[in-house]
Amino acid sequence: MQNDKTTLRDLSILTSGDNDVFALIDHTTTHAGRDRLHKHIMHPPDTHEKLKEVQDVVKFWSAHLELWPTIILNGTLVMLEKFFESADNLSAPPAGITSLFNSFFQKLLNKQEYFFIQFSLSHLSDFLKGCTQLSEIADKHDVPPLLKRELDLIKEELQHRLTAQLINVSKETKYAELAQLNYKARREIKNVVYRLIGSYARLDAWQSMAKATKTHEWVFPELLAAAPIYFETTGLNHPLLQRPVSYDIAFDNKHNFLLLTGANMSGKTTFMRAIGVGALLAHLGMGVPAKSLKISFLQGIITNMQVEDNILRGESYFFAEVQRMKQTAEKLLQQQPHLVLMDELFKGTNVHDAYECSKAVIDGLLHHPGHLMILSTHLYEVVEQFRNSNEILFYYFVTTMSANGGYEFTYELKPGISDDRIGYRILQKEGVIALLNKNTN
User: Fold this and answer.
1) How many angstroms from the chain centroid is the CA of residue 188?
2) Which CATH superfamily is domain 222-436 in?
3) For residues 141 and 161, which has the higher predicted lDDT (pLDDT)?
């Protein structure tokens, strides 16, 4: 799956703050694991087969979180990096009078170096112990193939001749032995440890997705082949909302286009974001916030939601909308299916232009049945033009309006078309009309 930064921002997957989807799924234990999880989101598996392999690993960890080693902490990896990158003044192995100095004299004569070596090697020992615990999982449990390959790599790296000695390091280890291990470790096992950290980071990212799935009580989706295009979900909700509303919706290759109507603030954008977030989480190999989800393997998600103008380049909001739609059209020329989410297109021009442009875009989109597409609009006249199109699904969000001018959003999704127009009611309810009509004289 390929997703650009605009899509990840529109779906609140990765933002500059803490209130995003990444924060929900980040249960990594180290910064290395967190970086790996971030890269996984930026570059999800690129084939259906690879995605299913990752999902099998995440399923395994969700059922066996108790197997995750607790001895490796983020500080462990930080200390190892400092240890291997710090200056080493020894050009030859410690020998002679240096190796005869006991711990007492070393603490007395070179206190800082002694404690640095002891502290570093104890962290290295903890790291190798944790990796050993991980490698043993493959022998005790029926692990999925992708996880088995990663654990076997760890087991192979642990065959280094220094591993056993380093694992046995403790507070009682004499300085002469510490000095020898310090010299040998820096020269012989640095690359091994860095490769082990890479493996650990991948495992950390997988267990993080598993823990998020279990913590939030999400369900694993059924991952289908790319064709024929299919999307069916029950109880889907937006994971960032405190009291989310659930949605049931289904698409297939005969009904791949959903035209969404409803008043402003009635829930259209939230619904589309829920669809996008659910699809992306599924393509990470983890659980989704729904009761069930069946989804075809998608090449990518394309959003047209929060288009921004570029004042430095002299580009208007409307021109930015056109450019984003051009990017969308280019993606739709690919045979692999995409999920396209379009929220009230062409807001940067007048109503007549918006009508003409929206109608033309919908006409064009209907020529691409191999993709899943949702378009929301408040232009009732546009919807009327396509009311009799068999390939289009029509859904709307309910707004309850009273005779005295009041209104209430139920956020309920129903089949059909809405012609609710409540902009003027909102102006009245918020007191804008009354304020403007006040005489200041």
Assistant:
1) 37
2) P-loop containing nucleotide triphosphate hydrolases (3.40.50.300)
3) 161
